[in-house]
Amino acid sequence: MPPLLIDYPQIDPVLFEIGPLAIRWYALAYIVGLILGWRYCVWLASKPPLALARVLFDDFLVWAIVGVLLGGRLGYVLFYKPLFYLGNPLQIPMIWEGGMSFHGGMIGVILALYFYTRRRNVPFFPMMDVVAVAGPIGLFFGRIANFINGELYGRATDVSWAMIFPNDPSQTPRHPSQLYEAALEGLVLFVVLHVAARSAGARLKYGWLSGMFLVGYSLSRIFVEFFRQPDAQLGYLAGAVTMGQLLSLPMLALGIWLMARAKPVPTP
Asked: What is residue 143's three-state secondary structure?
């Protein structure tokens, strides 16, 4: 055991209870991430050289919530526990019991935005680029909630900042990989995208910021997966490859393609 082992700050996953209603940190993370992401989208979309009406993002917020919840849940069902849910289909809607996939949630938001922009007759990529820049906000709060829940912890290690998570049956010191992800997928990626989005050239290369988000997230996720404990029901898929890394590879390829194809358009 490392001599400087850090005590895990055991925080009750339930923020507060009102009768039978329990408000959990995980639900709060989704709410805060979506609201702050929406506010950031409104602010960024108002900046030159390309202004998008606030009402577009006000109305899309509900679509985004549906996309995140449906996509995240179905992604978890299909990617991580297909056999279990095939035999227990009535448990698929039970989101409160845990089980969400970022990759599925991302697909859900992209599909929601595609149908929303078609319905509103507005261009897809200018709006997608703004939404992509706000994406790390939700990722940051989601990973902090994972840490509070003591879930998705890291692999066994002897580093001095290792922690013992209460939900770990082996009670082995492990990497706090949720915090690594919050830092890379959340804080670092947000700063990089925010700086890039303040450039007029980047905003007018439709799809470039979306591609940058996909590349940044994929590289961060692939890297942190080397420190994160694989899902127990899956383990390693091929050699040392995890499901998170496998799902991130198509995202990485798509992101590179979007950045390569993005061309400057005339200022409206």
From this structure: helix
In the block, residue with structure tokens 């922009």: 117
- Examine residue 117 and state whether it is found in any structural domain, yes or no: yes
3-state class (DSSP) for residue 41: helix
Q: Tell me, yes or no, whether 8 lies in a domain.
A: no
Structural element, H or E, at residue 90: none
What is the C-alpha separation between 215 and 248, in angstroms, rounded?
9
| Residue 267 lies inside a defined structural domain of this protein | no
pLDDT digits (tens, 9 = 90+) for 17-65: 777 777 788 888 989 999 999 999 999 999 888 888 999 999 999 999 9
- The β-bridge relationship of strands 21-24 and 14-18 is antiparallel
Judge residue 184's burial from the number of C-beta atoms within 10 Å of its C-beta, 0-12 exposed, 13-18 middle, 19 or more buried: buried
Burial class of 110 by CB neighbour count within 10 A (0 to 12, 13 to 18, 19+):
middle
Q: Of 58, 191, 86, which is closest to residue 136 (Cα–Cα)?
A: 191
The domain total for the chain is 1
Domain interval for residue 252: 17-261
CA–CA separation, 21 and 27 (whole Å)? 12
pTM of this structure: 0.91
- Two tokens at 184? 């890379």
Q: Classify residue 9: in a domain, yes or no.
A: no
